[in-house]
Amino acid sequence: ADRYCVFGNPIAHSKSPDIHAAYAAQTGHAVQYEKRLAPVDGFAAAVQAFIAEGGRGANVTVPFKLEAVKVANALTIRAQAAGAVNTLHFTDDGIIGDNTDGAGLVADIVNNAGVQISGRRVLLLGAGGAARGVVLPILEHRPAQLVIANRTVATAQALADQFAALGGEGVVSACGYADINGAFDLVINATAASLGAELPPVPGTAFAPGALALDMMYGKEPTVFLEFASSHGAVVRDGLGMLVEQAAEAFAVWRGVHPDTAPVLQSLRGQL
Ligand code: ATR
Fold it and tell me: Is 182 annotated as ligand-binding?
């Protein structure tokens, strides 16, 4: 079997081995995928050790997504845009760094939730690594508007500036939470607030009737953000679909075939 793994610290609770085992079984590919705990100061060495053992590729999670940029010999456009790498591909031409997080999010919104991004008003909460990773894939779907709101407005402004030309005239802008104006068809929580059971201070009026609210976090219970969005009439969705979709994108990068994600998402949902 061809070997792959996910590097992280901690890594014990990663669902990626189960997801990739399901994709391998479904596609008939002989793939072995394991978890690897890399020491916080030993990521690059862990990658080299895995390559020496015959590894063909790896996923990268917290806290190594920035370091993985440096480990790569070349980056895909979407990894450059994200400034982070979640997928490494070990090829004859060296280590290619890719990022499938944004494509995974967009695939979950468009294909699984059935919500178009094209022509819609999108509000992105947060301007850290998680937010940065999804801006390019969102803009590729040509939203009417993309507002990036963050506690630290300067970070959101820098992110908006980076993608302003790509979005088109007046499409991408930045603001603080208090300055969020109007209603949005899609509101994405890319802040780390849910981790601490906190709510980013988004106004309830930000959710247009029938809006989709998506939290990148997931768990057995809905996050406070999703509870809040729901109370303001939004349709809610957690980050489990994004997780399954970013894995499918990585599988496609490595194996050349995109697996069917629906049965895997359904089965993971049942295990939460
Ligand atoms: P990640 O890689 O998960 O995005 P990060 O780069 O540390 O992590 O970014 C965390 C994001 O969550 C930032 O946008 C942060 O806002 P600031 O830039 O103003 O710090 C946001 N965040 C974290 N806790 C938050 C909270 N309680 N309320 C609102 N935003 C929060």
Answer: no
